[in-house]
Structure formats: structure tokens, C-alpha cells
Amino acid sequence: MAGRLVSAGERRAELAAGLARVEERIARACDAAGRARDEVTLIVVTKTYPAQDVRTLAELGVRQVAENRDQEAAAKAAACADLPLVWHFVGQLQTNKARSVVSYADYVHAIDRARLVTALSAAVVSAGRAPLHCLLQVALEKESGLGAGRGGVAPDGVAELAAAVRAAPGLRLAGLMTVAPLAGAYAGSPGAAFARLKEISRSLRGDDPAANMVSAGMSADLEEAVTAGATHVRVGSAVLGVRPALG
Ligand SMILES: *Cc1c(COP(=O)(O)O)cnc(C)c1O
User: Is the pTM of this model over 0.90?
Assistant: First the structure.
């Protein structure tokens, strides 16, 4: 855990062990599902942990990392600019942070409204950078009429938001992401939730075969995500340790 006194060598051993355990879980789940291991990409979620951990993870072979708060992510990405990393932004995003996120992120996973699409597009164009890969966050609880206040687009809003991303200069529609719902018909059933996401992804790919990323599964439910057909799992605590509760 952050804040505990451990030597650099001990921390490296902890991270190596965490990575090996997660790698083993992914490999077993792929095997059980009859999927090739290379169909699933591990994204390591480094939020709350220091840039030195990101550096050590890179030395251990990690190439995909994720953060969920802009201020923390911007500082870490700057501290790790010399490393061959792909940065994923997986948190809720305010439009006034679009310019900052676009300065370091390769992928944004939680796009849930047209105003954010407009803001990201404008930021990419003014930065003159390579296209930003965009995933729509699907709020499966909204299918049960719940979760009005939480992030994510309702399943019946996916097609329209996808069209907005496709039409936006500087953005590439990469696919869909979700977090297993805590409420509604899918509460307590991450496997069913992820299977529903995969179904929505199938219909999206009917219009746009390149939008094939399915980002689902975290430390607690990565097996269910692999079984359901996720292409990317986002794993934090199972690699880095349990985060201190947010204050
Ligand atoms: C923190 C976070 C994760 C990783 O969660 P763990 O339970 O630590 O694996 C995945 N996705 C998102 C959007 C997150 O915020």
C-alpha cells in the first residue's frame, strides 16, 4: 500500500508478483473460454500510486496504463514521458479538462455525452496531435431506468453518440467500456452485464467494424469479462495493492 516503507527492491518484487498473478488469471480465463491469450490486453490502472511504480511496471514489461483523475494523470505522464507507454484515461471527464487530457492520453474510455465529444474534438484539432481513440462508457443500469446521476450513456443512446464521435474531427471511435453496475437488473451479475456490453458492441461493429474494443473487467471481475469477450481489462489493485480509501 502507498505510504508503507518498502525498499525499491521489495516494491519491485511486489509489483512483479502482482503482475504474475493477474497474468495467470487472464491466461486461465482465456483458456477456459477457448480464447487466445493475445485477444485480451491488460491495462494496469495506476491511480493513487506514484510515478515510480509506473516506471517499475514499464521495466517489468507493462505498456498500457490507465488513470482516472486529470491532475494526477498529467503529472505522472510528464514524469514518465521517456517510457514507451500508452496512456488510457478511464475516469469521468469534465469538458474543461479536455485540453489537458488530450495532451497525454492516447485513449479516453468514459465518453458519455455529446458535449464531451465536441470538447475533445476541439482540443485535438487545436493541439494538432494524432487522432484520439474514444470509447463510449455504457451505463447498463440505465437500461433498468436507474443511475440517472451516474456517468455513462444508456444502451439506447449508444448509436447516436457513436455517430457524433465518428463525425468529430480528430476523434476515432475505438469501442465501448463499462463498469459492472451496482444497481438494476445486472447488479451482482458482472458476467451478464459484460455479455450485454458485448451484444451492444456487436451491433456497433455492424456500422463500424474498426470500433472493436470492449473494455470491461477490473480486479474483482476480470474472469467474467474475459469469458464475455472483453478485449481489454482494466486492473489496478490486484497488481499494485489495495488503494487507501479516498478521503
Ligand atoms: C480504478 C478503476 C479500475 C481498476 O479497479 P481495480 O478494482 O483496482 O482493479 C478500472 N476501471 C476504472 C474506470 C477505474 O476507475
Answer: yes
